[in-house]
């Protein structure tokens, strides 16, 4: 094979991939020996990478409106996360989580928290079953002061049941202003129709025929009141139902 081409591809891949931990920029000389054989690449030990974290949860107990993004040492961040974990485990109605927050877990929680804190943040957690994806997401959501909601599967659970669950979430977010993380795992995607609904939620926030006439009437009336109270009457035509519903949908997506 062409060593120079291999060097070019490896250099680009390893220098841009997250978490490779290489000490120096790659080039042909550091990839190949004089005889053309690939060298053994040296990696930075993980504890050298475990230096600092960036997030808006660094002041434990600070209300959401007073939070700012700041950088702290990783050890400080780890201790803060243990405080949040202790708080989570003392809250009523929540199953206690006994977590060991090792370096990778702290970094993972930090990434999840940043995404959830961003505008319309959505994420796909990929990993083997039992690796703690749901637990770490629940902790990150708690750190961001978000409630975690999911669906409860039952025999015969289908798209109609999913729509009922989503309707309830939309009402909480759009009309009550609650901050919610909608957590789903692969076992809950019981049909292609539900997967398509999730795709629509992510893309536009709208599922066709989700609300009946009674629900729509409540949404329009309550949202009109919110528009006037929040001072958006000059930006949203309260007499136009489509505009009012779009405002409602935007509120849901922002939550």
Automatic annotation (TrEMBL):
Residues 97-254 form the Dynein heavy chain AAA module D4 domain. InterPro entries: DHC, Dynein_heavy_chain_D4_dom, P-loop_NTPase. One of its GO terms (cellular component) is dynein complex. GO terms for molecular function: dynein intermediate chain binding; dynein light intermediate chain binding. It holds the Pfam family AAA_8. GO terms for biological process: microtubule-based movement. Coiled coil: none annotated. This is Dynein heavy chain. It comes from Trepomonas sp. PC1.
